[in-house]
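I am still learning, so can you show me any protein sequence you like together with the matching structure tokens, please?
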Amino acid sequence: MKVLVINAGSSSLKYQLYDMVDESVLAAGRVERIGMDSSILVHEPHHTDEITEVSEILDHTIAIRKVLDKLTDSEVGVITSTSEIEAVGHRVVHGGESFKNSVLVDSEVKSEIRRLFELAPLHNPAHMMGIKAVEANMGNVPQAVVFDTAFHQTMPAKAYMYAIPKVLYKKHKIRRYGFHGTSHDYVSKRTAETLGRPLEDLKIITCHIGNGASLTAVQGGQSIDTSMGMTPLEGLMMGTRSGDLDPAVVPFTMMKEDLTVNEVNSMLNKHSGLLAISGMSSDMREITDGMEAGEPNATLAFEMYTYRVRKYIGAYAAAMDGVDAIVFTAGVGENSIVIRQHVCEQLTFLGVEIDPELNKIRSKEPRRISTPNSKVEVLVIPTNEELVIARDTYRLVKEAKNV
């Protein structure tokens, strides 16, 4: 079975086509600047170099049509007909309390995703556009949705409830949901495989650190706490997101600067974090270069970032009454030697000891970077959220066919 995985944004779309016989990626790519006359399609077939095409792509339906054209193209395509694609899997950011697992798309599922628009106004509407675009181009091909929040639905109430009037939870479902669940789920399972130990016996802290970042306490294979909250704004300091702050900062800033709700929301999501503190970039590579060049604001941004990661690791070790493994993943976690070093060198109270030479190795395979004497295993495991979506989609479609 061939499965097309789609991650639709408001003006972009990423895709990968899998052959589930061996879980190989036949092609991948992205469409950017959807809605403009200078949209960009980048197509990366497995058998040749990537190609880039600039054209007018006014909506997601046209974007999917362009993707299908490339997948079936006589020169750069990887299949002869779209009929070879037997299922499509979508990433959906917010599943609320409604979805604890991945599901096949039907009218009820679509209605519920629409109802959840208010919890993820920047994401869920875009995912729905992706679903509708596939329907318009591929008819009744089975579609599945895999939710970022689903993995965290195992959190106990003591972890997900906020200490605010309970009526707000009952009426509006204001609570912690957590995100990056597909990634945290994948790397925790890969940790158990790498260590050769049963997942149910392990206490793991997974550190998904990219432009967006979150940590999760995974005990016995289940999420028991995570740093992001009702939205992806809470938790760690990120590329452009503030992360944790005193809630009173919001009304105080609105009053002093005469800001609207939308303006302060934009400030906290798009103009804060590393970008705000460094004054130069939201990219950790540039922050690190600035720090090494002695730039004080870059140094402060870096120190704030690593300090907050360590704080959450300490908190989650306490929440689980111990930790067996700390895992770094995602763009920064997988690639930044200096981030891993600075985070781990002040975790000696946990018995963490990393090997500087192992930490310098770059690889696409899971690897230990801790010493044999370390009381906590420290690993770097590349995440693969698209593969999880493909696997869930494949499983759901197979199960539906066998009913």
